[in-house]
Amino acid sequence: MDKTQEINKKSIVLNQITSLGDQKYPSFELRIIFEYLSGKGNMVWCQQQMSEMGLVQSDFDFPFINSHQALDGLNRVIKAFYRPGLGCDIAHFYRLQDLGVIGACVGNAETLGEAMEITQAYYDLIGSFTDIVNIADEQTFTNRLVDVSRLNPQVLRFLFELTFTGMAILSKELSGQKINIQTIRFSGFLSRNEKLYYQALFDCEIEDECKFNEWVIDMGTLLTPIVNKFSSPGEAEKDLKCLLEELNKEQGLVDDIDCILKGSSGDFPDPDMISHALGMSSRTLRRKLNKMGVSFRGLMDKVRCQLAINLIQHKNLSNEALAEELGYSDAANFYNAFKKWTGHNPTFYRL
Fold first, then answer.
1. What's the pTM value of the predicted model, to 2 decimals?
2. Which domains are present in the chain?
3. Going by C-beta distance under 8 Å and a sequence separation of 6 or more, which residues neighbour residue 141?
């Protein structure tokens, strides 16, 4: 391999962590959002929304709430208060202790790169309604959000703001230094004023109408040492083990279906087979999923979409090969389904 090939060599890791239904979602995100809005004079509104969502204040004392409650809360917030930059403003209140056990583990890393590896390894404990792709080469590290659930564009942008701003805020808390973001790319259109706002806030290049929402930092940034240590490594490891055991015990219906589907690539079971395997009728399965705002078809589409993107980016399979892998009769049917899932054709995701 010559020098040019070595420089251009990329490491690509796709984390399939999109949360739906009764899958567990960290409670701190919605708690901080409601605390921010309450501080802005909207306490009564927040209390009313929580009541309608079946939440009480003490639910935020626990590490997790259900994903459908978290997403419902986000949709309500966006409908009532959305504006560009809202996620940035809220994320400035993030603190490492908000991440609970994961925050303690991250706080015991030696460098920001090691801290990043911990958060990626346990991203489902931090929460996301998108899949995450990390792309590293000799010069840069890129964190990309992949929307496999066709989120409301404003919700997606809000979550993206929370992501890159939260990363910058928590990295500064860990290292004592401002982290320099090289580029922030938005999939949507930005007005001139919106670009100027983000540029002033992060002092970096802002791009819009890109293929993906993603932020980019220099690889050297990952070598930045962590100076603010938190709990002892032994305590953090012990607490993490307990949390993972607790999470495994509370695996929900959507987790069960997700596991079955991902283990059945190319020969996916139908709803009747799934319901039988889970010991319930098809009608009961539909009713339970509908109550959480999801459907069996939606779960199937998400899994197929995740598998397809993974195969495209790691194996660069043709549409014909992808159709065979995912159980479609021909490439045309797969192509049409993929475009329905993502809004794009498979070539869009090829590197």
1. 0.85
2. 3-248 (no CATH), 252-349 (1.10.10.60)
3. 116, 134, 135, 216, 217, 218, 219, 221, 222
